[in-house]
TrEMBL record:
PANTHER family: ATPASE DOMAIN-CONTAINING PROTEIN, DNA-BINDING PROTEIN-RELATED. SUPFAM superfamilies: P-loop containing nucleoside triphosphate hydrolases (SSF52540). PROSITE patterns: CYTC. It comes from the Bacteria. Residues 164-315 form the Cytochrome c domain. It comes from Nonomuraea coxensis DSM 45129. This is Cytochrome c domain-containing protein.
């Protein structure tokens, strides 16, 4: 019952280990933006299960502690960000509204926000009765042109100006940012660019897979100057140990040194795995301290859970042709592999494999590490595939 570990997508870990540098960087971003200093926003990238969502949520709490307005969206492929952004900014403004002395300023903004939201192409057809849940009438002539770049820019500027009244800022968090449709990415970058020039206190903070920076720079060449990229990776030994030890200590439970060695070996420092192995070891250990034997006994069960929950759920999303493609990648090795080499292994022409490759990228299972090279987004995925019957 007292097991502290939390394997699971976006599950807040009992101890957020090894991310001090990123947290400090974000403090600086918040402070500078609040002071109207020029500042690049942050984009967190990394493999699956490395802790991007958890870090983004922590950033959100930090902004809220400073009384900023905050909102969060999770991007989906093929879905325009217009409505989700409207909903997120609605949340952000709701956080600020009670402290604002001029209700008409809030209402004015909500009118613009509603007009922006209603410009959604799927809402305009009249087929959907989606309503943004905003009680004020939609205004006209601002953020409602239908051109997302113009509309986002106007909306952000207005939102920032409401935050300025309160001497705070607004932070909009975008998880799975690599899934924002290409046209929307460029609108978003352009709006951020405008905003950074005017010094308005609104920032867009993103998280996504390792190829997100190349998605952004393919869309707008100046994106490198807009965002500070923080690549997060597996935890080093010290941090991985702390992630296990500190929550246990709260419950008066210890680990032996050998148990920690074995856990690090098994989890390889990947946060999701640290939580998964830690959880099962705790459950199966009869008493404190948790020993090497406890870890050995529990490892198969932890692996089984990962095989189903972490690897299997993703594997199942792939079609047979996509699975063949991934098995071929796995056979070649765990480093990024050349697409040409995969084609060769499968005895196919590279061009005939592009559809499988592209849809695997779209499904977030693989990413292009650099031109001509691909890699799994899921750590240890090659090892998992090699253990599967083909
Ligand atoms: N710094 C950390 N220390 C300890 N555990 C962590 C840390 N960061 C994340 N975790 C744990 O790792 C798991 C995965 O975290 P999270 O869902 O944030 O990863 P993610 O990078 O968003 O993955 P995905 O790409 O699949 O969305 C969670 O169980 C979380 O509790
Ligand atoms: Mg996530």
């Amino acid at each position: 019952m007292r097991n502290p570990y939390a394997p699971g997508a976006g599950q807040r870990p009992p101890e957020l280990a090894g991310r001090d540098r990123e947290l400090q960087q974000f403090e600086v971003v918040l402070e500078r933006v609040a002071r109207g200093r020029p500042e690049r926003s942050m984009v967190v990238t990394g493999l699956r299960g490395v802790g991007k969502t958890v870090l983004l949520n922590t950033f959100k709490s930090m902004a809220m502690q400073r009384l900023w307005g905050t909102g969060k969206i999770e991007a989906r492929p093929d879905q325009s960000i217009r409505r989700p952004v409207a909903a997120a900014l609605h949340m952000a403004i709701r956080e600020l509204a009670p402290r604002h002395r001029a209700p008409e300023r809030i209402e004015e903004f909500l009118g613009v926000l509603k007009a922006f939201a209603m410009r959604d192409p799927s809402a305009a057809k009249g087929t959907s009765h989606w309503s943004p849940g905003i009680e004020v009438p939609a205004s006209r002539g601002r953020a409602d042109s239908g051109d997302l770049e113009i509309d986002l820019t106007e909306l952000f500027v207005d939102a920032a100006s409401v935050a300025t009244d309160l001497a705070v800022g607004i932070a909009l968090f975008i998880d799975e940012m690599q899934d924002v449709p290409a046209s929307d990415v460029s609108a978003l970058c352009a709006a951020c660019h405008e905003l950074s020039q005017s010094g308005g206190p609104l920032i867009v903070v993103g998280a996504g897979l390792p190829h997100l920076p190349s998605v952004l720079s393919a869309s707008k060449s100046y994106s490198e100057r807009l965002f500070r990229y923080a690549r997060i990776d597996k935890l080093d030994r010290e941090a991985a140990d702390l992630a296990l030890i500190l929550p246990a200590r709260e419950e008066e439970v210890e680990f032996t040194r050998e148990a920690l060695d074995a856990l690090y070996e098994a989890a390889d420092g990947y946060p999701y795995f640290v939580q998964a192995y830690g959880k099962v070891a705790w459950d199966l250990a009869p008493r404190t301290p948790i020993t090497l034997d406890d870890v050995k006994v529990s490892a198969p069960e932890a692996e089984e859970e990962l095989a189903v929950g972490f690897f299997g759920s993703r594997y199942e999303r792939a079609t047979p042709a996509e699975r063949d493609y991934m098995h071929a990648m796995a056979q070649i090795g765990d480093e990024p592999v050349a697409t040409a080499e995969v084609a060769e292994a499968l005895g196919r022409k590279p061009s005939s494999l592009s559809p499988a490759r592209d849809s695997l990228i779209k499904k977030g299972l693989i990413y292009s590490a650099e031109r001509g090279l691909i890699a799994f987004t899921v750590p240890h995925f090659g090892r998992f595939l090699r253990a599967q019957p083909v």
